[in-house]
Amino acid sequence: MTTTGRQLVSTLTADGKLVLELQEKDFPAPAGNQVLVKMEAAPINPSDLILMTTGVDLDNAEYSPGKVVANVAPPMVAAQAGRHGKPQTVGNEGAGTVIAAGAGEMAQALVGQRVACVPGNAYSEYALADAMMCIPLGEHSCEQGASSFVNPMTALGFVETAKREGNEAIIHAAAASNLGQMLNRICQEDGLGLVNIVRKDSQAELLKGQGASHVVNSSDKDFEQQLVQAIAETQAFLGFDPIGGGTTTDSCLRSMERVAAAKLTEYSRYGSDQPKKMYIYGRLDLSPTILTPSYGFGWTVTGWLLMPFLASCDMPTLIGMRQRVVSGLTTTFASSYKAKVGLEEMLTRDAMMDYAQMATGEKYLVTPNA
Amino acid sequence: MTTTGRQLVSTLTADGKLVLELQEKDFPAPAGNQVLVKMEAAPINPSDLILMTTGVDLDNAEYSPGKVVANVAPPMVAAQAGRHGKPQTVGNEGAGTVIAAGAGEMAQALVGQRVACVPGNAYSEYALADAMMCIPLGEHSCEQGASSFVNPMTALGFVETAKREGNEAIIHAAAASNLGQMLNRICQEDGLGLVNIVRKDSQAELLKGQGASHVVNSSDKDFEQQLVQAIAETQAFLGFDPIGGGTTTDSCLRSMERVAAAKLTEYSRYGSDQPKKMYIYGRLDLSPTILTPSYGFGWTVTGWLLMPFLASCDMPTLIGMRQRVVSGLTTTFASSYKAKVGLEEMLTRDAMMDYAQMATGEKYLVTPNA
């Protein structure tokens, strides 16, 4: 028995047209340990927007009900050559109700339950998911469980990465985001130092109100002095930057070096031997990353992605992280949303122009069956 | 008994004046396993120029015999705050004749011999060196032995680094340098793939004449296509860039990703999972490093320095590298020089304006006692 419903599909053509469209699709009956989830809530994360708005001329797009056609900037078209003409489903994660299950024991146990899942097509009325990857939500609502994978596991992943590399403090940029607020709570729980970089006073207040000890504002004239002081106090020589473009990572490395150089008793032309590392885990700013020659040679800038990180963890670590998320779903790992939109509404000009900005703390939630 | 001689000293003041000056100095009698070397030959390497010409206004400097006073660009002054007012000796490495030795057995065994050494004040009539760090040159001349540490150990270090990280091929930029030519010979001896990036046809011809299989010219219009093809043929996903500033590292990472993406059967919005790594080991270009968002998140850019690398090696590896250098001093590890200059001559306007350019294959040799 198949179930029919609409799902969002994104197609980029070789000549630079992006088509976002709700398509009717037949979902087959789940087999083995698969479950069929009626999707109730799915967040729009920056990683989802890569397939929807990155480099897309939303201003001059054609909007019709359930369909958007837009031009994409040529460099982005070229950079995504592997995607040309291949329809992609959208929506990494979400939550919903299991309405059918394969014969497998794990799948059967979930029938009728609300679950969080990571189907890759969460902007859809229905999604097939692996029962092993589902988190039963118990008494929690689908809205409460919708963001229980990407942000929580990423925030825990930062902490795990820092500890693994022997650091007792980290820097986080764009720190007032949902993810940043989670990280702030986790670091307080774990006694890990955290230097939060924000760009507005209101964001600084928000984080301080949530117990953050070190918040620096990149819009302040003395930003780098603030940063140097916070690094000196926390000894944070490792950071995570979701902005990517511009000078955020550069400022962090330079400030780390100033703190390290202040401890040198003898001058070294090559800079200090304190290792300094920045992970770029997003590209909120698509302009180039700028690295100035001002922190010697003891530095590393590298990418960070959730899936390769998870693949690097052993099973007990993974289970521990997951367990922690489940038990803190409405506390440590709670997310908030600016707006809820249905499948058609998420493709309107107003909605797209708004969530495409990825403004801090203004995340959208898609409710496919509302 | 002390020995008196002139040595070059570099002093940067907090208000941005650089003073390079030959100063009379008393060298004490060597003790223990120290030897006193009468310096005959010392190369001017890019790492030496950090203390002599980087950011220095050579055009408007005051040149007098044995002394140069020049203004330094404010950002470079600020970046070297740890050095303000602290006189630095110059010249990492060189070769000369041991004229006195401490009572230690190793030191005594070197009396009267020509040795290569790494004293840190090689632009000097005399230098104290640790006997354990000296390489006896046997029948080789001091000119032949002058560059037996920095370039040979760096080139071998690249190969060791690549092998340690599981790579069978590497990319090298500014590949026609003395160091690049050495690396070309080592890679051929070891059967390691090497993609040489040069910027002139004459440099390409030079390397091809020395047996290089893959040479790409960054001045060619189809530079990146050439680079992509060379990477595809060698599988070089790790590279070494002495230029630092500008887009060389970016071109390498983007080309690596194109080769990796061509193998993907399914599109990934995050790029391929092929790790791509570039080491920046110099700053021939002091402009910022530019990293465009065009190769996903599976990349790393990091510094490479000889001393931390050597510190990471175990003793058998170090001894093996050193032994290889000694036995290949006039073949694999041979260096050539554009000009020889005495201590006073190295501080003339003509000489400084020339070697400050660090033009490929135009290295200077200082002959302090000629």
Give the uncertain stretches of chain A in residue-range form.
none
Q: Could you tell me which chain pair has the largest interface and how many residues each side has?
A: A-B, 44 and 44 residues
Helices of chain A, by number, come to 12
Beta-strand proportion of chain A:
25-35%
Number of domains of chain A: 2
Helix content of chain A: 25-40%
Query: What overall form of chain A do the CA principal axes indicate?
Result: globular
The radius of gyration over CA of chain A amounts to 22 Å
Q: What composes the largest sheet of chain A? A: 7 strands, mixed
Mean pLDDT rating of chain A = 95
- CATH topology type of the largest domain in chain A: Quinone Oxidoreductase, Chain A, domain 1
Measured between the Cα atoms of the first and last residue of chain A, the distance is 24 Å
CATH-level-2 architecture of the largest domain in chain A: Alpha-Beta Complex
CATH homologous superfamily assignment of the largest domain in chain A: Medium-chain alcohol dehydrogenases, catalytic domain
Described by its quaternary structure, the protein is: homodimer
User: What is the total tally of β strands of chain A?
Assistant: 20
User: Which structural class best describes the helix and strand composition of chain A?
Assistant: alpha/beta
Instruction: Just give the CATH class of the largest domain in chain A.
Output: Alpha Beta
